[in-house]
Design brief:
Layout lengths: L10 E5 L12 E6 L7 E8 L5 H26 L3 E3 L1 E2 L2 E2 L2 E4 L13 E10 L1 E6 L6 E9 L3 E11 L5 E6 L6 E6 L8 E4 L1 E2 L2 E2 L3 E3 L2 E2 L9 E10 L1 E6 L6 E9 L3 E11 L5 E5 L10 E6 L6 E4 L1 E4 L2 E3 L1 E4 L13 E10 L1 E7 L5 E9 L3 E11 L5 E5 L1 E4 L9 E7 L1
Parallel strand pairs: 18-24, 27-35
Antiparallel strand pairs: 1-3, 2-3, 4-8, 5-6, 7-8, 8-11, 9-10, 10-11, 12-13, 14-19, 15-16, 17-19, 19-22, 20-21, 21-22, 23-24, 25-29, 26-27, 28-29, 29-32, 30-31, 30-34, 31-32, 33-35
Length: 406
């Protein structure tokens, strides 16, 4: 109970199941109350009427108003939480890992978990796993419909140790084993084609702009000589805010080309050298980071509606668990007011992202290709929204396009 001597205010507390008793003793009065706050605790504020002054009121009344607002917001937020389960009859509905995991190599958008749930009440969610081997998985968002659904939990961190680890989804009985490999251990053997340590004819794709986030369209294609078939993974150090990473599998030996994708945000303009490496060879390639002033002014053209449909076509076959290639792309209509570099990227939907990066050399209305990356997770029709990345974003109506996965 509050000690009513020598104080202008005090707090009493209870629990979520046992609300607090609100005391009214002598000249003490309850100013406000709410059912409970975070971590299952409830509070009430009391005021000693004997000691009240006009100055005290000026100080306390605004605090009380803010307190009431915070109570209402807390209770409102709690009511908006989704209700869902990840089990049926005590059995996990499903959780699986996607991507390759190697000690010391940063994770990217190809690393995530597929987590199945059954939603009984729509609302917001926040789901994560425990941390093992230096990494964890997490996702937050909102369920708009009830029923069976699948969530993609993105991977975070850098694997610190190789070995087999068990990841448990917090507040769920679901868990899964995951192997983090040693880099290149028992994997395909290859060498970079180079001259004097410089990569031969690297193909640099996309525009690299100071302060502009990279997209999947920012990548480098390198020539390699494959000596033994098998999986591969390699990357570069982080230089000027970005690094390059490549992973896949060689199904044959001989001369081949493989892509490395850029991650991060260039910090400064200029020319920077990157050194992809395996256990036996390395070579260098240069990336030119341009001034933001070189970015184009342009907008994506949208049809009627909110959002309206993009003026688009979709090319390629989209099949669950089959990785997208350059044959999977879409065209969208844009209008260019100022020539320069551009980057366009969609949101991540059902494991897929479409993006493009390059330079406009003509003004006016035109059509560009945006290329798909990732692996479709589920069958159905999915809606993606392309957006402009960079410093010269124009006001535009949002537009969407549809991709059907079989």
């Amino acid at each position: 109970m509050c000690d009513a001597t020598g104080f202008d205010g005090c707090f009493t507390a209870g629990t979520q199941k046992e609300p607090a008793t609100f005391y009214k003793t002598g000249n003490w009065q309850i100013l406000d109350k709410c059912s409970y706050l975070q971590k299952g605790k409830v509070v009430c504020m009391l005021l000693n009427l004997k000691k009240i002054t006009f100055t005290t009121l000026l100080l306390i009344v605004p605090l009380c108003v803010l307190y009431l607002i915070s109570c209402q917001k807390e209770l409102k937020d709690e009511r908006k939480q989704a209700i869902f389960t990840s089990e049926a009859n005590g059995v996990c509905l499903g959780v699986s890992a996607v991507g390759l995991y190697f000690r010391g190599l940063p994770l990217n958008d190809s690393n995530y978990l597929r987590f199945s749930v059954n939603v009984s009440r729509t609302g917001s969610y926040d789901i994560s796993t425990d941390t093992a081997g230096g990494i964890y998985f997490a996702a937050s968002g909102s369920f708009e419909t009830a029923g069976a659904q699948q969530i993609l939990l993105k991977a975070y961190g850098v694997p610190q140790n190789a070995g087999s680890f068990n990841f448990k989804v917090i507040n769920s009985s679901c868990s899964l084993p995951l192997v983090i490999h040693e880099p290149l251990l028992s994997f395909g053997d290859f060498q970079f084609i180079n001259t004097g340590g410089v990569c031969n004819s690297p193909q640099i794709n996309g525009a690299f702009i100071e302060g502009m986030n990279t997209a999947p369209s920012n990548n480098v294609t390198l020539k390699v000589q494959v000596l033994n078939k098998g999986k591969y993974v390699f990357g570069t150090d982080t230089i000027n805010g970005i690094y390059f990473y490549g992973a896949g599998e060689f199904s044959d030996t001989g001369l081949q080309e493989i892509p490395l994708y850029a991650f991060g945000t260039p910090q400064h303009k200029g020319v920077y050298s990157y050194y992809p490496a395996t256990t036996t060879t390395t070579c260098s390639f240069d990336i030119t980071v341009e001034d933001p002033a070189s970015a184009a002014d342009y907008s994506i053209i949208a049809g009627a509606g909110d959002p309206g449909s993009c003026y688009y076509t979709v090319t390629g076959n989209y099949v669950t668990d089959l990785a997208l290639t350059k044959a999977n792309n879409a065209t969208i209509a844009i209008n260019v007011d100022k020539l320069g570099t551009y980057t366009i990227m969609t949101n991540l939907v059902n494991g897929m992202v479409f993006s493009a990066s390059g330079t406009f050399d003509t003004k006016g209305r035109q059509v560009i290709n945006i290329y798909g990356t990732g692996t479709p997770v589920e069958k159905g029709q999915f809606e993606l929204t392309p957006a402009i990345f960079g410093p010269h974003l124009q006001t535009q109506d949002a537009c969407t396009f549809q991709v059907t996965v079989f």
